[in-house]
């Protein structure tokens, strides 16, 4: 036994002496420069591109194993006009050898100085970073054992890096297909206190197209990367405008990656960020001062199967949105959300309206001429249908609340909308809101199970002041009264033109205690000349007061028909019927007013005698035309005062004059139409 121990000790001592001798002698005996050409040749063959390094290539073994060199150049493959793919001004790395025997990595320094990489995409789509690869085909019967990934572990027991730095790096991106060129310069990365048992301090900075970007903070400890969690606390600053902090942890990064973190984005200006990048802001808004302030805070938890956002707060200009969301099963997403918005004026965020009609006409003419040229050059191809498959897969359950809303200049409060969706059918029920001292309730459905979307909506309007509403929305003072409505509509398609053509439905509008402004129906009845501009005009704006205005209607394929719209007032009764073509935007109505002989209140519905002057309303929506139906008036007056008078009847009853009665009626029928 003693001999065994003796010889064992001798062998071990001899190995130690040999290792020490190798560490001391090899760097002095081996001529690195002698093998440099062969090294360059092998790397060039492996990469398929020229490779060279300067003559100051050095190897060291003791006390630190290390390598250093300068002026490394790795060229591009054939077919690219750019000469270099990668250049490195200098590189130095030093690591202890003996601790490697115990899976203990101790790095003195790892310094990469002024690396420069040029990434190129040619016009033919080829890229210069692809390397020739020999892919080994897996054996057909080879299977990866279940749980193999979970059994893996870090190949080291300990890690320590004193200095890890990348200094003054640069990445240049050139895309010849689009003619774009992007540059990231002054890239600096420094890692401090790199180990497995404490957080790694990180500092990164760069300049993106002339604008600074930086990240700093801590990550780790990394020793438990197998099962996690790996903490992080990072702050990103960009363009001297955006500051974002991410604080949380990576969970199970090696097995089932996930993340849980708090996201905080300090107030910044999207418009200033676009300006800093030298780009025109992508959105044109009616108010150029919106999208100028934005903030975001949220708690995010996500893995490969679920995503949840809680305590979300989005600030946009004067608006504040509190939100939460949960999504699961991303192949067939199931999304739940809750949105609560304090206020927003949507009109400020819409595209601006052009006030110059001439420029609009000129643009229309240019558009028409371009379309004609295109139609001459080539026949129009088939219109690509929208793909609603993602919407059909979506399962949605959410609620939206808006406390104050301005849309199309209408002032709306306390909006509540609940949305449920499954298998391509979206139900919005209920829909509630308050506006102009009244309220609106209803429900809507959107069906995308077919290629042509179908939608329908039902609304009940109660006690809404129509005057202020129309003045705000249409900027016209044409009607007053408390409005009630019950409307059901259905339509198909996504284009407004298709909407109008497929619009069907029915409903009834009711206005109480109001007035129609701009029209004096009673004056038209009393005096045809003053009503239609022949007589002198009064300084007082004409209007027609009413106790009740009721308008039942139906819509068939975009054509609205009202069989008996009625207006009632103490001195006037009006019946109107006709159509409004929503597609052509034309009107065709006949209005029959009648003066009431006595006043007995709003409940008096008896037919009264009096002069009746029917009105014809024609033209289009933007410029309706009003004119008296004089033919109808003449026919009525002649019928009542001539043909139906007792004296005329007695004369015509004589046998010798009966044929004259029939002849007279025939002549009058030809004159008056009926």
Key descriptive features of the protein:
674 residues, elongated
Task: Give a written overview of the molecule.
It is a single chain. This protein has 674 residues and is α+β, with helices and mostly antiparallel strands. Among the domains are: 283-351 and 389-477, no CATH class; 506-628, no CATH class. The chain has 13 helices and 31 strands. The chain has a 31-stranded mixed beta sheet that branches.
| Strand content bin | over 45%
Secondary structure tally, helices:
13
Low-confidence stretches: 146-152, 356-361, 374-381, 528-535, 599-610, 667-674
Number of strands: 31
What is the residue-averaged pLDDT?
78
Fraction of residues in helix: 10-25%
Shape: elongated
Helix/strand structural class: alpha+beta
Question: In angstroms, what separates the terminal alpha carbons?
Answer: 139 Å
Computed over alpha carbons, the radius of gyration is 42 Å
Q: Please give the largest β-sheet.
A: 31 strands, mixed
Describe the structure concisely.
The protein is of the alpha+beta class.
Task: Please describe the topology of this protein.
Elements (H helix, E strand, L loop, with lengths): L1 H28 L2 H16 L3 E2 L5 E3 L4 E11 L8 E12 L8 E18 L26 H4 L6 E4 L2 E12 L4 E13 L1 E2 L4 E9 L2 E9 L10 E9 L3 E10 L6 E11 L1 H7 L17 E10 L2 E11 L2 E10 L5 E12 L11 H21 L11 H5 L1 E13 L2 E13 L2 E11 L2 E10 L6 E12 H9 L4 E14 L3 H7 L1 E14 L3 H6 L1 H4 L11 E14 L2 E11 L2 E10 L4 E10 L19 E5 L4 E5 L1 H14 L2 H7 L5 H15 L2
Parallel strand pairs: 5-6, 5-7, 18-19
Antiparallel strand pairs: 1-3, 2-3, 3-4, 4-5, 6-9, 7-8, 8-10, 10-11, 11-12, 12-13, 13-14, 14-15, 15-16, 16-17, 17-18, 19-20, 20-21, 21-22, 22-23, 23-24, 24-25, 25-26, 26-27, 27-28, 28-29, 29-30, 30-31
């Amino acid at each position: 036994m003693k001999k065994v121990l003796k010889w064992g000790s001798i062998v071990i001592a001899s190995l130690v002496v040999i290792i020490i001798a190798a560490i001391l002698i090899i760097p002095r005996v081996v001529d690195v420069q002698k093998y440099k050409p062969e090294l360059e040749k092998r790397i060039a063959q492996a990469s398929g591109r020229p490779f060279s390094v300067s003559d100051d290539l050095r190897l060291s073994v003791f006390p630190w194993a290390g390598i250093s060199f300068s002026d490394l150049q790795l060229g591009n493959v054939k077919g690219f006009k750019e000469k270099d793919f990668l250049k490195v001004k200098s590189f130095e790395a030093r690591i202890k050898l003996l601790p490697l025997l115990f899976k203990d990595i101790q790095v003195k320094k790892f310094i990469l100085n002024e690396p420069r990489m040029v990434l190129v995409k040619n016009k033919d789509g080829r890229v210069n970073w692809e390397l020739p690869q020999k892919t080994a085909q897996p054996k057909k019967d080879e299977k990866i054992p279940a749980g193999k990934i979970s059994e893996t572990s870090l190949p080291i027991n300990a890690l320590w890096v004193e200095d890890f730095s990348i200094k003054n790096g640069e990445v240049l991106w050139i895309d010849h297909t689009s003619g774009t060129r992007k540059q990231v310069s002054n890239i600096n990365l420094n890692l401090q206190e790199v180990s497995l048992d404490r957080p790694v301090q990180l500092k990164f900075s760069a300049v993106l197209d002339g604008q600074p970007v930086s990240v700093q903070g801590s990550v780790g400890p990394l020793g438990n990367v197998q099962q996690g969690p790996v903490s992080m606390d990072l702050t990103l600053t960009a363009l001297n405008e955006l500051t974002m902090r991410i604080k949380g942890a990576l969970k199970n990064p090696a097995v089932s990656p996930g993340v849980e973190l708090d996201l905080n984005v300090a107030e910044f200006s999207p418009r200033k960020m676009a300006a800093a990048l030298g780009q025109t802001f992508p959105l044109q808004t009616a108010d150029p001062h919106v999208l100028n302030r934005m903030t975001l805070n949220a708690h995010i938890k996500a893995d490969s199967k679920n995503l949840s956002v809680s305590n979300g707060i989005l600030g946009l200009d004067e608006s504040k949105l509190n939100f939460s969301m949960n999504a699961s099963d991303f192949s067939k997403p199931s999304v739940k959300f809750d949105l609560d918005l304090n206020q927003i004026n949507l009109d400020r965020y819409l595209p601006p309206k052009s006030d110059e009609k001439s420029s609009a006409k000129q643009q229309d003419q240019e558009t028409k001429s371009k379309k004609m040229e295109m139609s001459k050059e080539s026949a129009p191809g088939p219109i690509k249908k929208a793909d609603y498959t993602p919407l059909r897969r979506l399962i949605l359950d959410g609620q939206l609340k808006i406390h104050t809303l301005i849309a199309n200049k209408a002032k709306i409060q306390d909006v509540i909308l609940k949305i449920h969706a499954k298998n391509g059918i979206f139900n919005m029920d209920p829909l509630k809101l308050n506006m102009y001292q009244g309220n609106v309730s209803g429900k809507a459905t959107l069906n995308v199970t077919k290629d042509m979307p179908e939608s329908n909506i039902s609304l009940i309007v109660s006690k809404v002041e129509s005057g202020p509403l129309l003045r705000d929305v249409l900027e016209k003072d044409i009607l007053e009264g408390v409005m009630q409505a019950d409307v059901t509509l259905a339509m198909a398609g996504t284009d407004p033109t298709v909407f109008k053509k497929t619009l069907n439905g029915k409903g009834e509008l009711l206005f109480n205690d109001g007035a129609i402004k701009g029209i004096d129906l009673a004056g038209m009845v009393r005096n045809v000349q003053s009503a239609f501009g022949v007589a002198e005009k009064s300084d007082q704006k004409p209007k027609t007061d009413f106790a009740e205005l009721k308008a039942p209607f139906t819509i068939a394929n975009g054509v609205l028909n009202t069989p008996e719209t009625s207006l009632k007032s103490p001195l006037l009764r009006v019946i109107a019927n006709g159509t409004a073509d929503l597609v052509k935007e034309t009107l065709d109505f006949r209005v029959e007013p009648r003066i009431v002989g006595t006043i007995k209140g709003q409940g008096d519905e008896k037919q009264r005698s009096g002069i009746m002057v029917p009105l014809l309303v024609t033209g289009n929506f933007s410029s309706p035309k009003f004119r008296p139906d004089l033919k109808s008036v003449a026919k009525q007056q002649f019928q009542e005062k001539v043909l139906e008078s007792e004296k005329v009847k007695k004369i015509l009853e004589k046998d010798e004059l009966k044929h004259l009665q029939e002849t007279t009626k025939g002549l009058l029928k030809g004159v008056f139409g009926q």
